[in-house]
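Pilot study result, target chain (457 residues):
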Amino acid sequence: MADSLNSACGLLVAFFGAREIDGIVTSQRSFGLHLLPDIQAAALGMLSRLNVVRTGLHQPELRDPLTISSLLVRCGARPVAIAPPEFHEFDLGDAKPFEALSNALWLFRISNRPAAVLLSRSWSAQEGRVVRLEVATLPDATSVGFARDFLSSIQDAAAGSTRYRGKVVTLDPPSEAGMRVRRSASVTRAQVILDDPTMARLDHHVFAFDRHRGDLRRFGQSTCRGLLLYGPPGNGKTHVTRYVASNLPDRTTVLVTPDGGRCLGDQLQLARSFQPSLVVLENVDRIGHDRQAPKGSTETGGLQSLLSEMERLSADADILFLFTANHPRNIDPALISQPGRIDVAIEIACPDASCRARLLTLFGASLIFDPGALPEIVARTEGASAAYLKEMVYRLALAALTTEMGNRITRRSVAVVLGEAIDSQARLDRGVVELADVPARRPDLRMAASGGRSADL
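Predicted structure:
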Protein backbone atom coordinates (compact mmCIF):
# COMPACT_ATOMS: atom_id res chain seq x y z
CA MET A 1 0.00 0.00 0.00
CA ALA A 2 2.82 2.38 0.87
CA ASP A 3 4.49 1.69 -2.48
CA SER A 4 1.28 2.44 -4.38
CA LEU A 5 1.05 5.85 -2.72
CA ASN A 6 4.41 6.77 -4.23
CA SER A 7 2.78 7.07 -7.65
CA ALA A 8 0.19 9.56 -8.88
CA CYS A 9 -2.06 6.70 -9.95
CA GLY A 10 -1.94 5.02 -6.56
CA LEU A 11 -2.62 8.31 -4.80
CA LEU A 12 -5.68 9.07 -6.97
CA VAL A 13 -7.09 5.55 -6.60
CA ALA A 14 -6.63 5.64 -2.83
CA PHE A 15 -8.24 9.09 -2.57
CA PHE A 16 -11.25 8.58 -4.89
CA GLY A 17 -11.72 4.88 -4.10
CA ALA A 18 -11.04 1.83 -6.24
CA ARG A 19 -14.67 1.56 -7.41
CA GLU A 20 -15.37 5.29 -7.84
CA ILE A 21 -12.18 6.09 -9.80
CA ASP A 22 -13.62 4.62 -13.03
CA GLY A 23 -16.56 7.00 -12.87
CA ILE A 24 -14.77 10.32 -12.40
CA VAL A 25 -15.28 13.14 -14.90
CA THR A 26 -12.64 15.67 -15.88
CA SER A 27 -12.64 19.16 -17.39
CA GLN A 28 -9.62 21.19 -18.42
CA ARG A 29 -8.48 24.49 -19.89
CA SER A 30 -5.25 25.25 -21.76
CA PHE A 31 -3.50 28.61 -21.85
CA GLY A 32 -0.30 30.11 -23.18
CA LEU A 33 2.54 29.54 -20.73
CA HIS A 34 2.94 33.30 -20.24
CA LEU A 35 -0.33 33.18 -18.26
CA LEU A 36 1.01 30.66 -15.73
CA PRO A 37 1.50 33.29 -12.97
CA ASP A 38 -2.14 34.43 -13.26
CA ILE A 39 -3.49 30.88 -13.40
CA GLN A 40 -1.39 29.71 -10.46
CA ALA A 41 -2.33 32.72 -8.33
CA ALA A 42 -6.04 32.30 -9.09
CA ALA A 43 -5.96 28.56 -8.39
CA LEU A 44 -4.10 28.99 -5.11
CA GLY A 45 -6.51 31.72 -4.07
CA MET A 46 -9.54 29.43 -4.47
CA LEU A 47 -7.85 26.31 -3.10
CA SER A 48 -6.61 28.16 -0.01
CA ARG A 49 -10.19 28.13 1.29
CA LEU A 50 -10.21 24.33 1.24
CA ASN A 51 -8.40 21.66 3.21
CA VAL A 52 -6.05 20.45 0.47
CA VAL A 53 -3.15 18.05 0.12
CA ARG A 54 -0.61 19.13 -2.51
CA THR A 55 2.12 17.13 -4.15
CA GLY A 56 4.40 17.49 -7.14
CA LEU A 57 4.85 15.01 -9.99
CA HIS A 58 7.94 13.71 -11.75
CA GLN A 59 7.81 14.94 -15.37
CA PRO A 60 11.13 14.32 -17.14
CA GLU A 61 9.88 15.53 -20.54
CA LEU A 62 7.60 18.49 -21.29
CA ARG A 63 6.75 16.77 -24.58
CA ASP A 64 4.95 14.14 -22.48
CA PRO A 65 1.94 16.07 -21.10
CA LEU A 66 0.44 15.18 -17.75
CA THR A 67 -3.34 14.69 -17.56
CA ILE A 68 -5.55 12.90 -15.06
CA SER A 69 -6.23 10.14 -17.59
CA SER A 70 -2.53 9.70 -18.41
CA LEU A 71 -1.75 9.39 -14.69
CA LEU A 72 -4.36 6.65 -14.32
CA VAL A 73 -3.46 4.80 -17.52
CA ARG A 74 0.13 4.49 -16.35
CA CYS A 75 -0.77 2.63 -13.16
CA GLY A 76 1.17 -0.48 -14.14
CA ALA A 77 4.41 -0.01 -16.06
CA ARG A 78 6.25 3.28 -15.68
CA PRO A 79 3.85 5.02 -13.27
CA VAL A 80 4.29 8.76 -12.74
CA ALA A 81 6.03 9.17 -9.41
CA ILE A 82 5.02 11.77 -6.87
CA ALA A 83 7.72 14.25 -5.91
CA PRO A 84 8.18 17.40 -3.84
CA PRO A 85 6.65 20.46 -5.54
CA GLU A 86 9.23 22.07 -7.81
CA PHE A 87 9.39 25.83 -8.33
CA HIS A 88 11.21 27.77 -11.02
CA GLU A 89 11.79 31.47 -11.57
CA PHE A 90 9.41 33.03 -14.08
CA ASP A 91 10.55 36.39 -15.47
CA LEU A 92 7.85 39.06 -15.47
CA GLY A 93 10.17 42.02 -15.92
CA ASP A 94 9.88 42.91 -12.23
CA ALA A 95 12.59 43.33 -9.61
CA LYS A 96 11.97 39.77 -8.41
CA PRO A 97 10.93 36.83 -10.61
CA PHE A 98 7.67 35.01 -9.96
CA GLU A 99 8.02 31.65 -8.19
CA ALA A 100 6.10 29.36 -10.52
CA LEU A 101 5.16 25.74 -9.95
CA SER A 102 6.42 23.28 -12.54
CA ASN A 103 3.34 21.14 -11.82
CA ALA A 104 1.12 20.27 -8.89
CA LEU A 105 -1.66 17.89 -7.89
CA TRP A 106 -4.13 19.04 -5.24
CA LEU A 107 -6.51 16.62 -3.50
CA PHE A 108 -9.49 17.91 -1.48
CA ARG A 109 -13.18 17.39 -0.80
CA ILE A 110 -16.25 19.30 -1.93
CA SER A 111 -19.24 18.60 0.35
CA ASN A 112 -17.34 15.52 1.51
CA ARG A 113 -16.89 14.31 -2.08
CA PRO A 114 -13.33 13.77 -3.41
CA ALA A 115 -11.95 16.12 -6.07
CA ALA A 116 -8.57 16.87 -7.61
CA VAL A 117 -6.92 19.71 -9.53
CA LEU A 118 -3.89 19.14 -11.75
CA LEU A 119 -1.65 22.00 -12.89
CA SER A 120 0.85 21.03 -15.57
CA ARG A 121 3.01 22.38 -18.37
CA SER A 122 3.77 20.88 -21.76
CA TRP A 123 5.27 21.69 -25.13
CA SER A 124 4.39 20.56 -28.63
CA ALA A 125 5.05 21.79 -32.14
CA GLN A 126 1.31 22.29 -32.65
CA GLU A 127 0.41 24.11 -29.43
CA GLY A 128 3.77 25.54 -28.40
CA ARG A 129 4.29 26.13 -24.67
CA VAL A 130 1.06 25.70 -22.73
CA VAL A 131 -0.12 25.42 -19.14
CA ARG A 132 -3.09 23.19 -18.36
CA LEU A 133 -5.45 23.17 -15.44
CA GLU A 134 -7.64 20.09 -15.07
CA VAL A 135 -10.34 19.32 -12.51
CA ALA A 136 -11.40 15.75 -11.69
CA THR A 137 -14.58 15.07 -9.69
CA LEU A 138 -17.30 12.52 -9.20
CA PRO A 139 -20.24 12.92 -11.62
CA ASP A 140 -22.73 14.33 -9.10
CA ALA A 141 -24.20 17.79 -9.71
CA THR A 142 -22.43 19.46 -6.78
CA SER A 143 -18.98 18.27 -7.83
CA VAL A 144 -19.53 19.03 -11.53
CA GLY A 145 -20.81 22.50 -10.62
CA PHE A 146 -17.67 23.14 -8.58
CA ALA A 147 -15.47 22.14 -11.54
CA ARG A 148 -17.41 24.43 -13.86
CA ASP A 149 -17.19 27.44 -11.53
CA PHE A 150 -13.53 26.78 -10.73
CA LEU A 151 -12.47 26.71 -14.39
CA SER A 152 -14.65 29.73 -15.17
CA SER A 153 -12.82 31.73 -12.49
CA ILE A 154 -9.48 30.60 -13.91
CA GLN A 155 -10.61 31.68 -17.40
CA ASP A 156 -11.58 35.11 -16.05
CA ALA A 157 -8.21 35.49 -14.31
CA ALA A 158 -6.37 34.70 -17.53
CA ALA A 159 -8.53 37.07 -19.59
CA GLY A 160 -8.04 39.88 -17.07
CA SER A 161 -4.28 39.51 -16.75
CA THR A 162 -2.47 42.81 -16.17
CA ARG A 163 0.98 41.48 -15.28
CA TYR A 164 2.47 42.53 -18.61
CA ARG A 165 0.90 46.00 -18.89
CA GLY A 166 3.46 48.73 -19.43
CA LYS A 167 6.13 46.15 -20.29
CA VAL A 168 7.97 45.12 -23.45
CA VAL A 169 7.75 41.49 -24.54
CA THR A 170 10.08 39.87 -27.07
CA LEU A 171 9.78 36.32 -28.37
CA ASP A 172 12.72 34.24 -27.14
CA PRO A 173 12.25 30.49 -27.72
CA PRO A 174 15.17 29.33 -25.51
CA SER A 175 13.83 31.11 -22.41
CA GLU A 176 11.51 29.52 -19.84
CA ALA A 177 8.28 31.06 -21.12
CA GLY A 178 9.50 31.44 -24.69
CA MET A 179 9.79 35.20 -24.31
CA ARG A 180 11.69 37.94 -22.53
CA VAL A 181 9.99 40.66 -20.52
CA ARG A 182 11.31 44.05 -19.45
CA ARG A 183 9.87 47.34 -18.29
CA SER A 184 9.42 50.03 -20.90
CA ALA A 185 12.26 52.54 -20.89
CA SER A 186 11.08 55.92 -19.62
CA VAL A 187 11.06 58.49 -22.43
CA THR A 188 9.48 61.87 -21.72
CA ARG A 189 7.97 64.27 -24.22
CA ALA A 190 10.84 66.70 -23.64
CA GLN A 191 13.24 64.02 -24.89
CA VAL A 192 11.45 63.71 -28.23
CA ILE A 193 12.55 66.45 -30.62
CA LEU A 194 10.15 66.73 -33.55
CA ASP A 195 8.71 69.71 -35.38
CA ASP A 196 5.28 70.84 -34.23
CA PRO A 197 3.26 69.42 -37.18
CA THR A 198 4.88 65.99 -36.82
CA MET A 199 4.34 65.91 -33.06
CA ALA A 200 0.71 66.97 -33.55
CA ARG A 201 0.11 64.09 -35.98
CA LEU A 202 1.73 61.66 -33.55
CA ASP A 203 -0.45 62.96 -30.72
CA HIS A 204 -3.59 62.64 -32.83
CA HIS A 205 -3.04 59.21 -34.35
CA VAL A 206 -1.51 57.56 -31.28
CA PHE A 207 -2.49 59.17 -28.00
CA ALA A 208 -5.89 60.61 -28.96
CA PHE A 209 -6.74 57.28 -30.59
CA ASP A 210 -5.72 55.43 -27.43
CA ARG A 211 -7.73 57.74 -25.15
CA HIS A 212 -10.91 57.45 -27.21
CA ARG A 213 -10.75 53.81 -28.29
CA GLY A 214 -13.69 52.91 -26.04
CA ASP A 215 -15.90 55.55 -27.69
CA LEU A 216 -14.63 54.55 -31.13
CA ARG A 217 -15.71 50.98 -30.46
CA ARG A 218 -19.08 52.23 -29.23
CA PHE A 219 -19.48 54.17 -32.49
CA GLY A 220 -18.76 51.02 -34.47
CA GLN A 221 -15.24 52.09 -35.49
CA SER A 222 -12.17 49.86 -35.64
CA THR A 223 -9.71 49.87 -32.74
CA CYS A 224 -7.08 47.98 -34.71
CA ARG A 225 -4.83 50.50 -36.45
CA GLY A 226 -1.47 50.58 -38.22
CA LEU A 227 0.91 53.55 -38.15
CA LEU A 228 4.11 53.85 -40.19
CA LEU A 229 7.07 56.02 -39.16
CA TYR A 230 9.32 56.52 -42.16
CA GLY A 231 12.36 58.58 -43.07
CA PRO A 232 16.14 58.44 -43.46
CA PRO A 233 18.10 56.53 -40.81
CA GLY A 234 19.44 58.28 -37.75
CA ASN A 235 16.50 60.60 -37.07
CA GLY A 236 14.90 58.85 -34.12
CA LYS A 237 12.24 56.48 -35.42
CA THR A 238 13.26 53.88 -32.83
CA HIS A 239 13.37 56.61 -30.18
CA VAL A 240 9.80 57.60 -31.07
CA THR A 241 8.61 53.99 -30.73
CA ARG A 242 10.14 53.89 -27.24
CA TYR A 243 8.40 57.17 -26.40
CA VAL A 244 5.06 55.76 -27.55
CA ALA A 245 5.54 52.51 -25.59
CA SER A 246 6.62 54.43 -22.48
CA ASN A 247 3.52 56.60 -22.55
CA LEU A 248 0.89 53.93 -23.19
CA PRO A 249 1.10 52.22 -19.77
CA ASP A 250 -2.17 50.32 -20.20
CA ARG A 251 -0.81 48.46 -23.23
CA THR A 252 1.66 45.61 -23.48
CA THR A 253 4.32 46.23 -26.11
CA VAL A 254 5.24 43.26 -28.29
CA LEU A 255 8.56 43.93 -30.00
CA VAL A 256 8.53 41.97 -33.25
CA THR A 257 11.78 41.03 -34.98
CA PRO A 258 11.54 41.24 -38.80
CA ASP A 259 14.03 38.42 -39.34
CA GLY A 260 11.92 35.98 -37.35
CA GLY A 261 10.43 34.30 -40.42
CA ARG A 262 7.35 32.33 -39.50
CA CYS A 263 7.87 33.30 -35.86
CA LEU A 264 6.12 36.53 -36.83
CA GLY A 265 2.87 34.61 -36.51
CA ASP A 266 3.75 33.48 -32.99
CA GLN A 267 4.64 37.03 -32.01
CA LEU A 268 1.36 38.42 -33.27
CA GLN A 269 -0.52 35.68 -31.43
CA LEU A 270 1.13 37.02 -28.28
CA ALA A 271 -0.14 40.49 -29.15
CA ARG A 272 -3.67 39.12 -29.48
CA SER A 273 -3.50 37.54 -26.03
CA PHE A 274 -2.08 40.73 -24.47
CA GLN A 275 -4.79 43.12 -25.72
CA PRO A 276 -4.76 46.05 -25.41
CA SER A 277 -1.34 45.84 -27.00
CA LEU A 278 1.17 47.79 -29.04
CA VAL A 279 3.02 45.87 -31.75
CA VAL A 280 6.33 47.43 -32.82
CA LEU A 281 7.82 46.10 -36.04
CA GLU A 282 10.90 47.99 -37.16
CA ASN A 283 12.38 47.93 -40.67
CA VAL A 284 9.15 46.65 -42.18
CA ASP A 285 10.63 47.56 -45.58
CA ARG A 286 12.92 44.54 -45.17
CA ILE A 287 10.05 42.05 -44.99
CA GLY A 288 9.02 40.32 -48.17
CA HIS A 289 9.79 43.10 -50.65
CA ASP A 290 11.76 40.67 -52.79
CA ARG A 291 9.02 38.99 -54.82
CA GLN A 292 11.64 36.76 -56.44
CA ALA A 293 12.51 35.12 -53.11
CA PRO A 294 11.84 31.36 -53.20
CA LYS A 295 8.43 30.30 -51.96
CA GLY A 296 8.71 29.13 -48.37
CA SER A 297 11.88 31.13 -47.68
CA THR A 298 12.27 33.03 -44.41
CA GLU A 299 11.53 36.30 -46.20
CA THR A 300 8.32 35.24 -47.94
CA GLY A 301 7.32 33.10 -44.97
CA GLY A 302 7.70 36.09 -42.67
CA LEU A 303 5.48 38.24 -44.86
CA GLN A 304 2.82 35.57 -45.20
CA SER A 305 2.82 34.96 -41.43
CA LEU A 306 2.43 38.69 -40.80
CA LEU A 307 -0.41 39.10 -43.31
CA SER A 308 -2.16 35.94 -42.15
CA GLU A 309 -2.17 36.98 -38.50
CA MET A 310 -3.29 40.53 -39.31
CA GLU A 311 -6.16 39.19 -41.39
CA ARG A 312 -7.31 37.10 -38.43
CA LEU A 313 -7.76 40.22 -36.33
CA SER A 314 -11.29 41.52 -36.07
CA ALA A 315 -12.14 45.21 -36.31
CA ASP A 316 -12.66 45.38 -32.55
CA ALA A 317 -9.20 43.96 -31.79
CA ASP A 318 -7.47 46.38 -29.43
CA ILE A 319 -4.07 46.45 -31.13
CA LEU A 320 -2.01 49.39 -32.38
CA PHE A 321 0.67 48.49 -34.92
CA LEU A 322 3.69 50.78 -35.10
CA PHE A 323 5.93 50.14 -38.11
CA THR A 324 9.18 51.85 -39.09
CA ALA A 325 10.93 52.00 -42.46
CA ASN A 326 13.99 53.72 -43.88
CA HIS A 327 12.87 53.10 -47.46
CA PRO A 328 9.06 53.20 -47.66
CA ARG A 329 9.08 52.42 -51.38
CA ASN A 330 10.40 48.96 -50.52
CA ILE A 331 7.39 48.11 -48.36
CA ASP A 332 5.46 45.23 -49.86
CA PRO A 333 2.20 46.52 -51.42
CA ALA A 334 0.27 43.80 -49.61
CA LEU A 335 0.98 45.61 -46.33
CA ILE A 336 -0.61 48.87 -47.45
CA SER A 337 -3.39 47.68 -49.74
CA GLN A 338 -5.99 47.00 -47.04
CA PRO A 339 -7.24 48.98 -44.03
CA GLY A 340 -5.99 47.86 -40.65
CA ARG A 341 -2.45 47.23 -41.85
CA ILE A 342 -0.84 50.62 -42.50
CA ASP A 343 -3.51 53.31 -42.15
CA VAL A 344 -1.36 56.40 -41.50
CA ALA A 345 2.22 57.31 -42.46
CA ILE A 346 4.21 59.96 -40.57
CA GLU A 347 7.56 61.15 -41.86
CA ILE A 348 10.40 61.47 -39.35
CA ALA A 349 12.58 63.74 -41.43
CA CYS A 350 15.98 65.30 -40.84
CA PRO A 351 15.57 68.00 -38.18
CA ASP A 352 14.95 71.59 -39.22
CA ALA A 353 16.92 74.50 -37.74
CA SER A 354 14.71 74.78 -34.66
CA CYS A 355 14.90 71.04 -33.97
CA ARG A 356 18.66 71.03 -34.54
CA ALA A 357 19.06 73.72 -31.89
CA ARG A 358 16.91 71.74 -29.45
CA LEU A 359 18.78 68.52 -30.17
CA LEU A 360 22.15 70.18 -29.62
CA THR A 361 20.90 71.60 -26.33
CA LEU A 362 19.62 68.17 -25.30
CA PHE A 363 22.78 66.28 -26.30
CA GLY A 364 25.03 68.96 -24.84
CA ALA A 365 23.10 69.59 -21.63
CA SER A 366 26.33 69.38 -19.59
CA LEU A 367 28.31 71.62 -21.93
CA ILE A 368 28.64 75.42 -21.96
CA PHE A 369 28.48 76.91 -25.46
CA ASP A 370 30.14 80.30 -26.04
CA PRO A 371 27.89 82.98 -27.54
CA GLY A 372 27.39 82.24 -31.23
CA ALA A 373 28.74 78.66 -31.04
CA LEU A 374 25.35 76.97 -31.03
CA PRO A 375 23.86 79.05 -33.89
CA GLU A 376 26.99 78.33 -35.95
CA ILE A 377 26.55 74.57 -35.55
CA VAL A 378 22.88 74.89 -36.49
CA ALA A 379 23.72 76.92 -39.60
CA ARG A 380 26.44 74.52 -40.77
CA THR A 381 24.49 71.29 -40.26
CA GLU A 382 21.51 71.79 -42.55
CA GLY A 383 20.28 68.40 -43.76
CA ALA A 384 22.13 66.54 -41.01
CA SER A 385 20.48 63.71 -39.12
CA ALA A 386 19.90 63.66 -35.37
CA ALA A 387 22.53 60.92 -35.08
CA TYR A 388 25.06 63.16 -36.87
CA LEU A 389 24.36 66.00 -34.43
CA LYS A 390 24.87 63.66 -31.48
CA GLU A 391 28.23 62.62 -32.91
CA MET A 392 29.23 66.27 -33.37
CA VAL A 393 28.43 67.03 -29.72
CA TYR A 394 30.58 64.07 -28.68
CA ARG A 395 33.48 65.33 -30.81
CA LEU A 396 33.11 68.84 -29.41
CA ALA A 397 33.15 67.50 -25.84
CA LEU A 398 36.25 65.42 -26.56
CA ALA A 399 37.98 68.37 -28.23
CA ALA A 400 37.22 70.57 -25.20
CA LEU A 401 38.71 67.99 -22.85
CA THR A 402 41.86 67.44 -24.90
CA THR A 403 42.49 71.20 -25.10
CA GLU A 404 41.86 71.62 -21.37
CA MET A 405 38.77 73.75 -21.93
CA GLY A 406 36.68 71.64 -19.55
CA ASN A 407 33.08 71.68 -20.70
CA ARG A 408 33.36 74.94 -22.63
CA ILE A 409 32.63 74.87 -26.37
CA THR A 410 34.16 77.78 -28.28
CA ARG A 411 33.41 78.96 -31.79
CA ARG A 412 36.95 78.01 -32.75
CA SER A 413 36.45 74.41 -31.61
CA VAL A 414 33.18 74.34 -33.55
CA ALA A 415 34.99 75.44 -36.71
CA VAL A 416 37.74 72.85 -36.24
CA VAL A 417 35.46 69.92 -35.39
CA LEU A 418 32.91 70.62 -38.13
CA GLY A 419 35.69 71.22 -40.63
CA GLU A 420 37.28 67.87 -39.81
CA ALA A 421 33.92 66.13 -40.00
CA ILE A 422 33.11 67.60 -43.39
CA ASP A 423 36.59 66.75 -44.72
CA SER A 424 36.34 63.21 -43.35
CA GLN A 425 32.94 62.72 -44.98
CA ALA A 426 34.25 64.06 -48.27
CA ARG A 427 37.14 61.58 -48.21
CA LEU A 428 34.72 58.76 -47.41
CA ASP A 429 32.43 59.79 -50.26
CA ARG A 430 35.38 59.90 -52.67
CA GLY A 431 36.47 56.45 -51.51
CA VAL A 432 33.00 55.03 -52.12
CA VAL A 433 32.87 56.59 -55.59
CA GLU A 434 36.33 55.25 -56.44
CA LEU A 435 35.34 51.75 -55.33
CA ALA A 436 32.19 51.94 -57.42
CA ASP A 437 34.23 53.03 -60.45
CA VAL A 438 36.80 50.20 -60.25
CA PRO A 439 34.93 47.71 -62.50
CA ALA A 440 34.36 50.36 -65.15
CA ARG A 441 38.07 51.31 -65.23
CA ARG A 442 39.43 47.78 -65.56
CA PRO A 443 39.35 47.74 -69.41
CA ASP A 444 41.51 50.88 -69.44
CA LEU A 445 44.03 49.23 -67.10
CA ARG A 446 44.26 46.18 -69.36
CA MET A 447 44.74 48.32 -72.43
CA ALA A 448 47.50 50.30 -70.72
CA ALA A 449 49.29 47.09 -69.74
CA SER A 450 49.23 45.85 -73.35
CA GLY A 451 50.34 49.03 -74.99
CA GLY A 452 46.87 50.20 -75.87
CA ARG A 453 45.52 46.85 -77.05
CA SER A 454 43.02 44.74 -75.17
CA ALA A 455 44.72 41.87 -73.37
CA ASP A 456 43.44 38.71 -71.74
CA LEU A 457 44.23 38.61 -68.03
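One observation from the pilot: The domain at 4-159 is CATH 3.30.310 (TATA-Binding Protein). A full batch analysis is planned for the follow-on phase.
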